[in-house]
Amino acid sequence: MDIENLVKEKDIKLTTARTEILEKLIHAKKPLSYDDIKKDISMDKATFYRNITKFEKKMIVNSFESNDKKRYFEIFESPHPHFVCVVCDSVECIKKHLEFKLSGYTIENIILKGKCKKCNQI
Amino acid sequence: MDIENLVKEKDIKLTTARTEILEKLIHAKKPLSYDDIKKDISMDKATFYRNITKFEKKMIVNSFESNDKKRYFEIFESPHPHFVCVVCDSVECIKKHLEFKLSGYTIENIILKGKCKKCNQI
DNA sequence: ACTTTAATGCAACTTAGTTGCACATATAAA
DNA sequence: TTTATATGTGCAACTAAGTTGCATTAAAGT
Lengths: 122, 122
What we know:
The structure is a homodimer of 122-residue chains. By secondary structure, chain A is an alpha+beta fold.
């Protein structure tokens, strides 16, 4: 996956700031918060949030609120569940497909909250 | 369900403030945020949050973070999924049991995010 | 180059929730 | 009934993620 493909036909100017954000998210193995990536990007947080909002509107990025009051962002791909640890606040993607229908509702994201492997061993 | 049963053997003093919170939650049909119930309770928000934290530790109340940056609280009963609308931020309980296992993990809450019935019709 | 439009940085703001501290209430001991 | 000790409460100040207003800068079209 490369950045040109992501923004293709999305009517978005590819500025330095935007490239930095997308680069970081593309190489991430799990959703990241602003806090997770601020050390690796050079823009102001206002710029970060304005750009991420734009990415979300264009369906390039997708986000959800975790347990730690932070928003987590990932490149929008085929929908998959996420696991959020209520002890250590870590966030993971669940590869397994979770089929679940609810008539009248549209389900966009499934979030499982609980204790992750590490925290279960303590 | 009554309040005496809830706090029985939980080593909790039943003050006026605590009774107010529990009364409200017992009669709620869905999880409520502080914002939802502040008009109906007479205590300071610090007292509310300190008590709700205590209830959570004692497994009387259970909570989760929604999409609107607010925490939603409900009386702790048998675990069930919740639906959170990403458009109108409404929160609902899902009665249907959702079985989902993930080895090594403990799942405490399942949150489905998407569009609710109302918002789907718009 | 000139104009128009969108992007950025900075600082101030918003808001859910937390914390320190003094005062109040309750339970236990004397 | 007083005294001691612990717990609960209100108020105000604080915290931290995210937002907004505004002046400045950069980019794209003519």
